Amino acid sequence: MAAKRFNASVFIFVFLFGTQAAILEALKLFDAPLAPVFIFGDSTFDVGTNNFLLVRQDIKANFPYYGIDYPYADPTGRFSNGYNTADQIVRLLGYRRSPPAFFSLVNHTSSFKKKILQGVNFASGGSGILDNTGSEFNNTMSLGNQIKLFETVHSNIAELRGPEETATMLSKSLFLISVGSNDIFDYLRYNIGSTSWPEFLTAMQSTYSNHLKSLYDLGARKFGIIGVPPIGCCPLQRTANATGGCFEVANEFARSFYIATEALLKQMSLELPGMIYSLGNLYEMTMIVIEEQYAFGIKNIEKPCCGDALVQCNQNASLCPNRDEYLFWDWVHPTQLASKLAALSLYGGSTRFVTPMNFSRLAEV
Ligand SMILES: *[C@@H]1O[C@H](CO)[C@@H](O)[C@H](O)[C@H]1NC(C)=O
Ligand SMILES: *[C@@H]1O[C@H](CO)[C@@H](O)[C@H](O)[C@H]1NC(C)=O
Ligand SMILES: *[C@@H]1O[C@H](CO)[C@@H](O)[C@H](O)[C@H]1NC(C)=O
Ligand SMILES: *[C@@H]1O[C@H](CO)[C@@H](O)[C@H](O)[C@H]1NC(C)=O
Ligand SMILES: *[C@@H]1O[C@H](CO)[C@@H](O)[C@H](O)[C@H]1NC(C)=O
């Protein structure tokens, strides 16, 4: 009798709790919260960081016609007519919203800790890998300083969730980084006479390596990294070419930056256990759009839609009626459409565009 009752209660125990565990598992599958995404870099990814900094006006984008195709035509600080590349990538990955700028969260102490669990964007227009890149703009947030801000976010998460859960969560998080163009622009402006390019590139790569290592030490494992686009083809740089063609010197630097970054990431992933990455070849993707513009419905690949090659977009500047027919939104930045094309290649592209795996694979593994 006693034995029977024992068996029955074991049965009931297993039935109840076994089922409950299974239901919990099933719920997790259907409503698994995606791990937070952390975003670093320059104006290609900035979603409003520079609005909070005392930087020069021409590396801000919180005034019309910026954002004209964003919901409510809101000039959020994105260097685009609408969504930028960071927004487009996270949307393709299934996130409901793009992580907000760190500074837009930091003063809301009550919601800060909850919101950082949904990801944070630290990217700052005009910044670079090297600390003094963009210093002519006064006070942009360099990649190094962005990582210092991430350190504070990291300790906040650790306070909230404990060190172990934090480590697990961050190991699943994507760390998206798009940086390097401004270092090359500054090299062309200030250092080209005094430092050789190989020497400068080596300095850039060793600093980049230190920054990535800092993120790894804080728990980052999955890196989604984007190379430098053909910056010599942006309207501003084309003015350095008398024929109006792309400024080849800048493009050559962009290509060698990609090659060096690929070697660096390969090496680091061999040395650092658990580190995986995707490296997007934004140079190649953009060149294809330039060479095959009509296949993408793009009528103008040389001139910006808003402003011109030497005038930043603002509400007194000229504005093209159909933004989707332009590659460039302003003197240096792509249109929302061009960002979308890049994000699609990063998300689902083959190794020609993103190596050794695409971003959707990186998010899954
Ligand atoms: C946050 O609040 C402090 C104190 O009120 C203020 O000085 C600072 O400018 C604010 N920072 C941002 C980014 O809004
Ligand atoms: C440069 O930044 C400092 C603070 O870091 C600020 O006091 C100054 O007004 C800024 N200058 C310009 C021209 O924006
Ligand atoms: C200018 O553009 C042309 C192509 O249109 C190219 O052949 C030439 O090398 C470029 N010159 C410079 C200085 O970049
Ligand atoms: C646009 O033009 C008006 C009138 O000339 C001027 O008051 C205003 O400051 C200009 N705005 C910008 C952003 O240049
Ligand atoms: C991403 O890469 C994988 C293989 O690496 C491939 O099977 C897949 O089709 C690519 N695109 C997407 C959206 O997953």
UniProtKB/TrEMBL annotation:
CDD domains the UniProt entry points to: SGNH_plant_lipase_like (cd01837)
Gene3D superfamilies (alphabetical): SGNH hydrolase
Record's keyword annotation contains NAD: no
Signal peptide as annotated in the record: 1-21
Alphabetized UniProt keyword annotations: Hydrolase, Lipid degradation, Lipid metabolism, Signal
PANTHER family: GDSL LIPASE/ACYLHYDROLASE FAMILY PROTEIN (AFU_ORTHOLOGUE AFUA_4G14700), OS04G0561800 PROTEIN
Family classification: Belongs to the 'GDSL' lipolytic enzyme family.
Protein name: GDSL esterase/lipase
Naturally occurring in which organism (per UniProt): Xanthoceras sorbifolium
Biological classification of the source: Eukaryota, Viridiplantae, Streptophyta, Embryophyta, Tracheophyta
